[in-house]
Amino acid sequence: MRVLVSGHHGYIGSVLMPLLARAGHEAVGLDCFYFDGCTLGPEESGFPCLRKDLRDVEPRDLSGFDAVIHLAALSNDPLGDLKGDWTYDINHLGSLRLARLAKEAGVRRFLFSSSCSMYGANANDDLLTETAPLNPLTAYAISKVRLETDLAKLADDRFSPIYLRNSTAYGVSPRLRLDLVLNNLAAWAFTTGKVKIMSDGTPWRPIVHIEDISRAFIALMEAPRELVHNQAFNIGRQDENYQVRDLAGFVKETVPGCEIEYAGKGGADPRNYRVDFTKLARTFPNLKLQWTARRGAQELYEAYKAAGLTADELQGRRFIRLNQLKHLLAGGRLDETLRWK
Asked: Domain-by-domain residue ranges, the chain?
């Protein structure tokens, strides 16, 4: 298939693009390159791409593609807190415009990188299926809910939107993010000797490795239409729901000499949910998600050691998305709409 990957230059996209190529697909990227130079180690490059803001895509840019994998977004809650309008403009309205243009251009399949964060808080501690009530608590999560809702209205016999509700991602990428829970805990442990927990450690999170997210995208892109048309799939493994303190324990087992430190105010994070992945496993029995949190902690530790990650880098702009965008804004390189000047 010929597939356009928005956000191909990001955390997941940098891992997905080579996997698409190895699977025999022709992958073309679309990215505005906010995070150019924010790398950890070498990356596979040379993929054709459009250097463009997704909000400025034209119909001709989408011509000739069989599918769009839509990863591009302002990627987390702190960015939404900085200015919520940016998150809604890009993650909802800009993304919906991209989908409409894709449909008009004859693209038949639109795979949206959604999020389990839309479940928000679950007081009953149930395992949440794709039919569970949505309770988004942040601009980021709300934008995901709004886009899923609007994409469903575009679904017909010519256009199949698919919603991959990813668990919290982790794992090594050439364009590493340290604002993700397991990546962050391992980085604190390696650079300071402290596994720093910013809450009371009790909130539940499902987590999933970015290679497994990438494999899921490929499987759903290749699947028969009747299996995936206008459907949501939770992406992760049933046995990979953890409390944050469990993840800290895996890091403590992995990084020599580190200790767990509760550095927050002691309260519980309101985002607290456990997720059911039965539908994905049942629909795609041959899709074997390969990673576990324990193995991921080891991978992260080895990568940080090889790169010589420092405490300054841990809190700098290279691996923290919010800090990089603040840097570009302060330097006058982005305007008030987050477009390049």
From this structure: 2-330
Instruction: Name the pTM for this structure.
Output: 0.96
Which phi and psi angles does 244 have, rounded to 5°? -55, -35
Q: Which long-range contacts (CB under 8 A, 24 or more apart) does 227-231 make?
A: 227/283, 228/160, 228/162, 228/283, 229/155, 229/160, 229/162, 230/152, 230/155, 230/160, 230/161, 230/162, 231/130, 231/162, 231/163
- Mean pLDDT score across all residues of the chain: 94
| Structure-token match 């928005």, residue found | 6
Q: How far apart, in Å, are the Cα atoms of 114 and each of 62, 143, 326? A: 21, 9, 25
Q: How far apart are CA 240 and CA 72, in angstroms?
A: 25
In the structure encoding, which two tokens stand for residue 195, read together? 């596994």
CATH of 2-330, one of 3.90.76.10, 3.30.300.30, 3.40.50.2000, 3.40.50.720: 3.40.50.720
The answer to whether the CB of 293 falls within 8 A of the CB of 207 is yes
Instruction: Mean pLDDT check: name the lowest of 68-82, 168-182, 241-255, 290-304.
Output: 68-82
Pairing of strands 67-70, 109-115: parallel
Q: Give the residue among 285, 278, 194 at the shortest CA–CA distance from 241.
A: 278
Reported as a pLDDT band with limits 50, 70 and 90, residue 46 is: confident
